[in-house]
Amino acid sequence: MQILTIPTTPISGQKPGTSGLRKKTSVFQSRHYLENFAQSIIDATGGAERRTFVVGGDGRYFNDRAAQVILRMLAANGARRAIVGQGAVLSTPAASHLIRLNGTDGGFILSASHNPGGKDADFGLKFNMPNGGPAPEAVTEAIYARTQTITDYRVLEATDVDLAKIGEQELGKMQVSVVDPVADYAALMESLFDFPKMRTLFSKGFRMRFDAMCAVTGPYAVEILERRLGAAPGTVTHATPLPDFGGMHPDPNPTWAHELMAEMMDPGAPDFGAASDGDGDRNMVVGQGIYVSPSDSLAVLAANVHLAPAYRGGLKGIARSMPTSGAADRVAEALGVQAHETPTGWKFFGNLLDDGRATICGEESFGTGSDHVREKDGLWAVLLWLNILAERSETVQEIMKGHWSHFGRNYYSRHDYEALPTEVAATIMDGLRARLGDLPGTAVAGLTVEGADDFAYLDPVDGSRSTAQGLRLRFTDGSRCVLRASGTGTEGATLRLYLERFVPGPGGLDQEVQQALAPVIEAAEALTALKKLSGRNGPDVVT
Ligand code: G1P
Ligand code: ZN
User: Does the chain have fewer CB atoms within 10 Å around its N or its C terminus?
Assistant: First the structure.
């Protein structure tokens, strides 16, 4: 087998976003595209010589082909070993776990997460560090810089590795270990939660629905929920991962997981519902007749996490992304632990977790996780909820109401304006940014602006600074809105408007969310002119 050095030239636009590089599948399939980016990752992270990497993805269209290319490139770059999920499949949290469990030098994760998959949809690639977490900004910047100067890449001339077969193989001088994608992850979950107690819950007739959305979590959920915990067969729906996710948009939110929502809002609904996304790191949680917003879910999980065996000792701290509601901060205060506010994207939690400053983290975008891996973890959140339900013997509804009456309620919603022309989005963002200094004191829709800024973050562990992370408007009554541009889209620009209002209770805890937020929504439009300038009647997706 021969190592080929293929001359290439830089390809523009290979800049990793919030979570790796995401592009249309056809772009990734175009000549040298994947190879240039993979070689840039290798070069920018110190080379692959004698190193061990994890390789796997969410199984979407092109996943298997891309994995074979990366394996041949790792072999050509001198890697010692690659650990690959069978069929090149690994959920993102399972990949993070394998990276850590095997003490590897990092991993190549093939996924565009919750973006649709298929020939005409999206593909993605990201690199995770030896701690199991997404590469931090300094590294993604170095990778991007390398894509702009690359002159050649190395690839082994070889036939495909048989990724269907579990066991050891060789690719040139590199050892390829094909592993069961589920086994180690399921064992990790079993070590964190009270499986016997959860089994008892199911044996007493507790009913659950888990919508895997034809994405990667299916086999993980069937193994853990149905086989190990004894949930009724068929609890997991859309359980078979498909390259195009069966045409579903594998994003677990009320809009895209509408089948699950309809079932859970029905009078005969199961006790508990949940869904996960394309690569298994997101989760949505729904009770009988009640949707749990991700920001609330983080707060409830933090307040109850001590009920799960692995967390009995309590929390070191709670971290949330800036646009996530402040509900978790109230729990942190009550527990007397640190509360951290980071920019959007899981990569910012890595240092806090590694440094023992946080145990549990979350984002409003359906992401929750803990220090058990360095990614958000959809099934983990679902299992923690189940563990809490088993311990508290209350319904989701009772738990939510109890939480709000104790801590008050942070009404919260995100309005997405998708695929706007890039110039329009820039005009809206730049226009608001330019006026931030003038806004304090402005009265609008019955609210008064107290403060306005462009969020910047100073990482307390490594001292790195990240700027331009979202425009924040804070009102005197504690409400706020945030406007930020998405860093994961592949078409035009998506703007996200995050809205929040706190009601301390005891009254007013049962309002309809959009209604409770009406003044903030009105003030946000008056200050950002989002609808007016975008020419849209309203958001495309409301979560
Ligand atoms: C979105 C979410 C963000 C999440 C990321 C990856 O990024 O908003 O919280 O970390 O997907 O799942 P965005 O498109 O907003 O940049
Ligand atoms: Zn995801």
Answer: N
